[in-house]
Amino acid sequence: MIDHTRRPGQGTFSPAPGAAPLHRMVAAQASMELRILLRNGEQLLLTMVIPVLLLVGFSLTSVMDIGEGSRVGFLAPGVLALAVMSTAFTGQAIGTGFERRYGVLKRLGATPLSRFGLLAAKTAAVLVVEVIQIAVLCGVALSLGWRPAAGAAGLAYAALLILLATAAFSALALLMAGTLRAEATLAGANLVYVVLLGLGGVLFPTDRFPEPVQAVVQALPITALTEGLRSVLTEGAAPALLPALTLAAWAAIAAALASRYFRWE
C-alpha cells in the first residue's frame, strides 16, 4: 500500500535540482575531451608522429648545425616542448574552433559549466595526452643515446614547467578558438606552430638570432619551456626562476583573457 501520510520531501527518490559540484563537471567534461582527442587521427599525427620524426631525423643526421655536444641531448628537451605546444595549443585550438563552429560549444554554454570549467577540463585532458607523449619521446630519446643529467629537483622543475606551459598554451588556444572563426583558427594555429618551431629554440640555439630578435624570442612561452627543460635535463643546471615566471605570466594573462573574451558561439 502507498503511505499517503509521507510528505513529498521524504521519498527515497526525491528530486534534488541544481548543478553538480564544479569538480564533478570538470571531471566529466575532461573525460569526454580525452576521448575526443584520442579518436582524432589528425591531432595524434601532429602531437605524436611529427615530434618523433623530428627527434629521430635530426638526431641521426647532421643537416642542421646545433653546435658542440650530443645532438639528441640538445634536441630531446626542445622536442618535448614542441609536443606540449602541439597538444595544448595547436591541436586544441583547431579542435575547439570547429566545436564552436558546429554548435557543440553553444550547447555546452547552456549548461552550468563555466568558461573556467571548460578551460580546466580541456587542460586536464591535454595533460593525460602529454604524459603519453613524454613517455614515448623519452623512450625514443633514450634509445638514441640521451642521458638526462637532472636529479630529483631538476625533474620536479621540469614537471612544473610543463604544467605551467600547458596552462598557458591551453588558455591561448581557447582564446584563439573562442574569438576567431574556425577557418581563421585553423590557419592561425598552424602558422603559430611553424613560427614557434623555428623561433623557440626547438631545433637550433636561439643565440644565433640578431640581438633585437633574441629579446623578443626569449619572452615567448615555447622558448621559456625549451630552454628551461634543456638547462636541467641536458646541462644539469640548477632550476632557474625566469622560465617559470615567464610561463606563469603567460598562463595568468591568457587565462584571464580567455575567461573574459571566449564566446560559446
UniProtKB/TrEMBL annotation:
It is found in: Cell membrane; Membrane. The chain crosses the membrane at residues 44-62, 74-95, 116-142, 154-177, 184-204, 240-262. Residues 42-265 form the ABC transmembrane type-2 domain. It holds the Pfam family ABC2_membrane. InterPro entries: ABC2_TM, ABC2_TM_bact-type, ABC_2_transport, Nod_factor_ABC_transporter. Its main location: membrane. Keywords: Antibiotic resistance, Cell membrane, Membrane, Transmembrane, Transmembrane helix, Transport. It is a multi-pass membrane protein. Belongs to the ABC-2 integral membrane protein family. This is Transport permease protein. It comes from Nocardiopsis mangrovi.
